[in-house]
Design brief:
Number of strands: 6
Order of helices and strands: EHHHHHHHHHHEHEHHHEHEHEH
Number of domains: 2
Strand content: 5-15%
Oligomer: single chain
Distance between the termini: 11 Å
Shape: globular
Largest sheet: 6 strands, parallel
Length: 380
C-alpha cells in the first residue's frame, strides 16, 4: 500500500512553459546583448511581448526539439539546458574565426569563461561575419550517446573537433555555467527577487520576471483538494523539485498549497547545491540522481551524509510513489525501488505516453488529479 507520495513540481503541478521561455531569452541575451557577446545589441530589450517571446523560443530551441532531445537524455535542469545550448553556439561561432584567431581561441578555451571573457570574445567576433545556427545542435549531439551531465563532456569533444583545442573546462559547472544560471534567474524571478535568489545583483535591469504568472496544471482548487485528501487519508506527502526554494515556496504560498506540506519534506535545488558543495566529489546530485527524493523521504533534518549513504533500493520502496513528468524522475524512482506515476502534462504532453510505456512506468496519468484513482482502491 502506498504511504508516501513525492511530487515533482514542473510539468506535474505547475507549468514549466515560463521556465522554457526564460531559458530561451537567456540564450538570446547571452548571444546578442552588449553585456555578453553583443552580436546584435541594437535588437536586444527586456520587455518582449508574448508573441516575441514565443518566436525567440521557437528559434533558439528549434521548435522545442532541443528541449525534447535533452529531456530524452535525462537532463531535467533548465540551467543545464541553457548552458549546453549557449556553449554549443559559442563553439560554433568560434569555429568560424579559428583560422584567424586561433591564439585567442586557445587562450579562451583553456581558462574559465566568465562574463569578462565573453565580452572579450564578443569584441573579436564582431570583427567578422559570423552566424548562429540553432538547427545544428540536435544533429551534432545525436552523435553522442551520453546521458545527462555526460553531455557536458561532448562539448569538450566538439572543441577539439571544431577548434583544434584540447580542453576539459566545459565538463564542469564552472564560470560559464554560473553566468548562464544568473541570467536565467534574472529573467525568471525578475529584478525584485534576483538578489534573494542568487545573492548577486542583476547585470541587466528591467526584467519583471515570471513568478507572478505561474500556471497550474489543474485548477488551483482541485489540486488543493487532492492535497487535503492525501493528508486526511494518512499519506505523507513531499516535494522533490529542481526549482530553487524561492521559486517553489512563493508560488505555493500564493496558491495556498504550502499549508499541506511539512517544510522538512520540501526539497529543492538549494538543498542539492548545498550537498554538492559539501561533497564536490559527487559532482551532480540533481535528478536522475535520487538524492532529492531520498532527502524528501527522510526530511531535511537528516544529514547529507546519511542521504548519500542510503542503501538502494530502499526498504519498503514499494510504499513510496514518485510523481513526475520526465525520464529523470522515473530513473530516480527506479534506483530507489519506488513506484512511479508518469503525468502527461510536461513538455511532450500526451506524446510522452509511448516513452513511459517503453520504460514500464507503474502508472501513466493524464493529470496529477488522477492519483486519487490509484489510491482509493488500496484504502478499501
Amino acid at each position: 500500500m502506498i504511504k508516501t507520495i513525492l511530487f515533482d513540481v514542473d510539468g506535474v503541478l505547475l507549468s514549466e512553459e515560463h521556465y522554457f521561455d526564460a531559458s530561451a531569452l537567456t540564450v538570446w541575451e547571452l548571444l546578442i546583448s552588449k553585456n555578453y557577446l553583443a552580436l546584435s545589441p541594437d535588437t536586444y530589450k527586456t520587455d518582449y511581448n508574448e508573441e516575441e517571446i514565443s518566436a525567440i523560443r521557437e528559434l533558439v530551441f528549434e521548435k522545442d526539439q532541443v528541449l525534447k532531445f535533452l529531456k530524452s537524455r535525462g537532463l531535467n535542469a533548465n540551467w543545464d539546458m541553457i548552458y549546453l545550448t549557449f556553449s554549443y553556439q559559442l563553439i560554433h561561432l568560434l569555429a568560424q574565426i579559428k583560422d584567424s584567431e586561433f591564439e585567442n581561441i586557445n587562450k579562451w578555451c583553456l581558462s574559465p569563461i566568465d562574463r569578462n571573457v565573453l565580452l572579450e570574445m564578443g569584441k573579436v567576433l564582431n570583427q567578422y561575419e559570423v552566424k548562429v545556427d540553432y538547427q545544428l545542435f540536435v544533429r551534432d549531439f545525436q552523435r553522442f550517446p551520453g546521458m545527462k551531465e555526460e553531455l557536458f563532456d561532448f562539448l569538450n569533444i566538439l572543441v577539439k573537433e571544431k577548434l583544434g583545442v584540447v580542453t576539459s573546462i566545459f565538463s564542469e559547472k564552472g564560470a560559464l555555467w554560473s553566468v548562464c544560471e544568473h541570467v536565467s534567474q534574472e529573467w525568471y524571478v525578475g529584478d525584485e527577487n534576483v538578489v534573494n535568489s542568487t545573492g548577486r545583483p542583476s547585470v541587466q535591469l528591467g526584467k519583471k520576471g515570471f513568478l507572478a504568472n505561474e500556471t497550474t496544471l489543474a485548477s488551483k482548487k482541485e489540486i488543493d483538494e487532492l492535497f487535503t485528501f492525501l493528508v486526511e487519508s494518512g499519506h505523507t506527502i513531499g516535494i522533490g523539485t529542481g526549482r530553487p526554494r524561492l521559486e517553489t515556496v512563493l508560488p505555493f504560498r500564493h496558491l495556498d498549497w504550502l499549508k499541506h506540506f511539512d517544510d522538512n519534506r520540501i526539497i529543492t535545488a538549494d538543498e542539492v547545491f548545498q550537498a554538492e558543495n559539501e561533497h564536490p566529489e559527487k559532482k551532480s546530485l540533481s535528478k536522475p540522481n535520487p538524492f532529492t527524493y531520498i532527502m524528501a523521504i527522510n526530511g531535511k533534518q537528516t544529514s547529507v551524509e546519511a542521504c548519500l549513504n542510503t542503501i538502494l533500493p530502499i526498504d519498503q520502496g514499494d510504499e513510496i510513489l514518485v510523481v513526475g513528468d520526465s525520464l529523470a524522475d522515473l530513473l530516480a524512482a527506479r534506483q530507489m525501488g519506488c513506484q512511479f506515476a508518469a503525468v502527461l502534462t510536461g513538455l511532450s504532453g500526451k506524446d510522452a505516453r509511448r516513452d513511459f510505456e517503453e520504460q514500464q512506468a507503474d502508472y501513466i496519468l493524464d493529470s496529477v488529479l488522477d492519483i486519487k484513482g490509484i489510491l482509493e482502491p488500496s484504502q478499501k
